[in-house]
Design goal:
The chain is mainly beta and 336 residues long. The chain has 4 helices and 24 strands. The longest helix has 18 residues.
Length: 336
């Protein structure tokens, strides 16, 4: 499943205008949820940016920080809490870079101010203070647009709550509880492979993975719910992330997910189809030979799809985030 958005941060060589200051998005978010934030840093001076410091506001808890090609980050902590994130990356004049992190918002409505210091090659510093409004009303109402627009429909809110319950069951590795979230005929598209039906998914994919996971952290962010007109079907797009340990290997993955939901006669929502796409990442050491049993659970490296898209089809993700995965029968190329 899982996973944002991409957590990958991209450097973009684009013209900048006079108002292209450092920003943090989204500008509006909900209380108590996990949110994926993007810090956009343009270099407006004639000298390169060398690093960026972000002070984490009180009430905000950092759970994941992403790097980008050619960048690295450091975290300063007070106890277990991240209080400052520093990204180091050269951003030349008239270019910009995006840096991403996942955080849990304060539990109540408030305004969060991000204190950011942008360091330049000549030793100078620019200070920025973009803000995010934490509110339980719709984004349009919070930003003053569409003053007559109502808050999200109750059905959408109930599905968001339902997805949090799913995350809790997943982190608890409770297969019996997870079964209540899936339609018996669910189809799972993940990493180039397909599971057909809950029993197949449970016995050959999800169950073995959960058994292997240790110190599991899994969740969804940037969730968007669309309920169809008859109220009996919906689709959900989100970012997912997963961190765990499998034996001596650390799993740290994220990506995008789409769920198709249908409502049963009992009024409960169930997943009828799941499709995930994991972030591209550097290939891991892998098995150089294809196993004789193509359905075996084996550690595999990065798989390159047609069109140059990269997904991890082994020690990586579940639903695009699995750490051990069944080899798909399609002709894919492994990079060692």
């Amino acid at each position: 499943m899982r996973r944002i958005i991409a957590f990958a941060a991209l450097t973009l060589a684009v013209p900048l205008n006079a108002t292209a200051h450092v920003t943090v998005s989204p500008r509006v978010s909900k209380p108590g949820v996990q949110e994926t934030y993007t810090v956009r840093v343009p270099t407006e001076k004639q000298v390169a940016t060398t690093s960026v410091d972000l002070e984490v506001p009180d009430g905000v808890t950092i759970s994941r920080v992403s790097d980008m090609d050619g960048a690295r980050h450091e975290e300063k902590r007070t106890g277990d809490r991240v209080v400052v994130i520093t990204w180091t990356k050269e951003i030349t004049p008239r270019e910009r870079a995006d840096f991403t992190f996942v955080a849990t918002n304060p539990a109540s409505n408030t305004n969060v101010t991000w204190a950011i210091r942008q360091h330049y090659a000549d030793g100078s510093i620019s200070n920025w203070t973009p803000a995010t409004k934490i509110t339980d009303v719709s984004e349009a109402a919070a930003t003053g647009a569409g003053a007559t627009q109502s808050s999200p429909a109750p059905e959408s809110s109930s599905i968001e709550t339902w997805l949090k319950q799913y995350d809790a069951a997943f982190n608890a590795k409770d297969l019996d509880k997870l079964a209540t979230f899936y339609h018996p005929d669910v189809t799972i598209y993940e990493g180039g492979g397909v599971n057909d039906g809950w029993v197949d998914y449970r016995d050959t994919h999800l169950g073995p993975e959960l058994k292997e996971f240790q110190n599991l952290q899994f969740g969804h962010t940037n969730t968007k719910v669309s309920v169809l007109r008859d109220g009996r079907a919906a689709y959900v797009t989100s970012n997912y992330f997963i961190k765990a340990k499998m034996g001596d290997r650390e799993v740290d993955s994220a990506g995008l997910e789409t769920l198709v939901l249908i409502k049963g006669t009992d009024g409960a929502w169930r997943i009828r189809h799941s499709h995930t796409s994991a972030e591209a990442r550097t290939a891991w050491p892998c098995c150089r030979a294809m196993p004789a049993n193509r359905n075996a659970l084996v550690p595999v490296s990065t798989i390159t799809w047609a069109g140059g898209r990269v997904a991890n089809h082994g020690p990586s993700d579940r639903v695009g985030r699995r750490a051990y995965s069944r080899m798909a029968p399609s002709p894919l190329r492994t990079h060692t």
